[in-house]
Every structure is written in C-alpha cells, then in structure tokens.
Write a structure and sequence with these properties.
The chain is about 30% helix and about 0% strand. By secondary structure, it is mostly helical. The relative contact order is 0.09.
C-alpha cells in the first residue's frame, strides 16, 4: 500500500488542464455525440434553434445550417 503522501501518476493529473492559444471550434455533431454519451438531453444540444436562443449567432461569413 502506498503512503498517504504519495500520489499515483493518475492522481497527480487531477485538476490539470490545457490552455489553447486560440478558440477551439467544435462542430454540432461532436456536441451531440458528447451529449448522447453523457445522457444530457437539453434542447440546446439537439436543436439548432434552441442553441441559437442561448448562444451567439454564427461567426461572420458562416451561416447556420
């Protein structure tokens, strides 16, 4: 058994995060895939109109699908 002061490699990574230099865009299908995986059925994850009510409009030069 390990001593209380020792932590495993996995435990030492708890709370670790990576910073991105810029915005990381994720497509709506990946959002739906994640929502399905975690069983989150909030309408914003499944319906473009519901998401638009909660968020910003598409970036300039791009149109909503």
């Amino acid at each position: 058994m390990t001593a209380a002061a020792e932590t495993s490699e996995l435990e030492s990574r708890v709370g670790h995060y990576y910073q991105m230099a810029d915005t990381y865009r994720v497509g709506r299908e990946k959002v739906r895939e994640f929502a399905r995986a975690v069983q989150n059925y909030h309408p914003a994850h499944w319906d473009v109109a519901a998401a638009a009510v909660l968020g910003d409009s598409p970036p300039a030069g791009r149109r909503a699908r």
